[in-house]
Amino acid sequence: MDAAGIERAMLIAAKVGIKGHPSCYHVPIEVVRDAINQYPDRFHGLAGIDPTEPHRSTPYPAAPAPLAAISRHIAAAAESLGLKPFPLPLAINHRARAGRSVCQACRTCDGFACAIEAKNDVATMLIRPLIERGLDLLVNTVVTRLECDGQRITSVTALDRHSGRTTSYRADRVFLAAGALASPHLLAASRLARLNPSGHVVGRFLMRHYNEVVLGIFPGEPDRERRFHKQLGIHDFYLGDPTVNGPRGKLGAIQQVPTPPPSLVRANLPRALSGLAGLVNHLTGLLVIAEDQPNYDNRVYLGSGVDRYGLPSLLIDHRYSSRDRAAGRALRTRARQILRRAGAWGTYSHRIATFSHALGTVRMGIDPGMSALDQDCRFRGIENLYVLDGSALPTSGGVNPSLTIAAVALRAATRALSLEVPASERILHAVA
């Protein structure tokens, strides 16, 4: 500094890429702190720059719940391997507030609706308050067609599943959020892709993450408290892992998964094997979420049949790439290391072959030739149609997409509704 004539400099505590990788760098916050303390007249600093930790304008609204004993044990094992586990942000009410029930930390939380409504899910936090403010929620109703005239959706046709009665609804704007399978299904059934300059991508680029549960088999019961423990996330390999035999670049995330209750396992086992359900208490595991690549050939499309509601049948064609599978294997290797360090005798891996993280089939973007939605999630070629679900995401990321889907939907809806609309046109109209 003196030789260069620099009197005062800023030190930045930053992490870019993977620690130890030649193309990346890592300046620990301790280095910045010690330099500033020793030479306060020469240095000032900035901490907390990490591309895997986006900026927050405010803290989380609630502190995480205390870790269960099994979570502390898994965290200690990960830390002994040089990793940095962190508390997963969870939409669970852990502390008394506003007359809400407090989570009882039961082990049914992850797979069932909460009996005491301590989970801050859509039903508890959104649907009920909106109904109190005038929302009409139509149950047992299937939307079968979006009717279009020129560049506008003029009505939405819906079928009552019980009576078979058809009703048409009109509104100034139509928001479609049926998910990455059903949204392109309805768009195709309504023949709207032909009006979109990127109509050829509707239904294409289907993604669903390469998810795998890695269970550790322990000599004793790792979760003796029998309490909820989906509490830890590990993102050390999100941007890659040069130490394993796997693909370069981003891999994804590892997170803790709760041990399923024996009653649930017993209910799903063949009767001859139901006695094995008691062994479940010797298991605990980690979930690996590998980011899968958007592939034009992975798609949903209309078949030749017709379902019971009169909609054309939906067909799905999806295959993981070799890179997708390699990313999953790399994360699985790391998850096994953590569980073995925690004391597991062995591990068992189970692929999750569902579409719970389905994404990408009506992708958003700035290229009118390769994105069916614009940057505000408006369907190109239709002035008043917006798609606000996982199908809008052009890439899958390496984490559960729920919060990203919600953030994109809130942004797009806010921008759409900020346009001037006469009060008389803000009402949903139904025509028999």
Structural class: alpha+beta
Spatial gap, N to C terminus: 79 Å
**Biggest beta-sheet profile:** 6 strands, antiparallel
In terms of per-residue confidence, which ranges show pLDDT below 50 for 5 or more consecutive residues?
20-24, 46-51, 421-432
Q: Numbering strands along the chain, what is their spatial order in the largest sheet?
A: 4-10-11-12-9-15
**Mean pLDDT, as a whole number?**
85
Number of strands: 17
> Helical residue percent?
10-25%
Q: Please state the overall shape, judged from the principal axes of the Cα atoms.
A: globular
Report the radius of gyration as a whole number of Å. Answer: 25 Å
How many H/I helical runs?
7
Molecular structure report:
With 432 residues, the chain is an alpha+beta fold. The protein has helices at 29-38, 69-80, 122-132, 179-189, 262-268, 322-341, 402-417, and strands spanning 9-16, 25-26, 43-49, 86-87, 141-149, 152-160, 166-170, 174-176, 210-217, 232-234, 252-257, 283-290, 299-306, 312-317, 346-351, 385-387, 429-431. The strands form 5 sheets. The chain has a 6-stranded antiparallel sheet with strand order 4-10-11-12-9-15, with helices on one face. The protein starts with 8 loop residues before the first strand and ends with a strand. 29% of the residues are buried. Residues 20-24, 46-51 and 421-432 have low confidence and may be disordered.
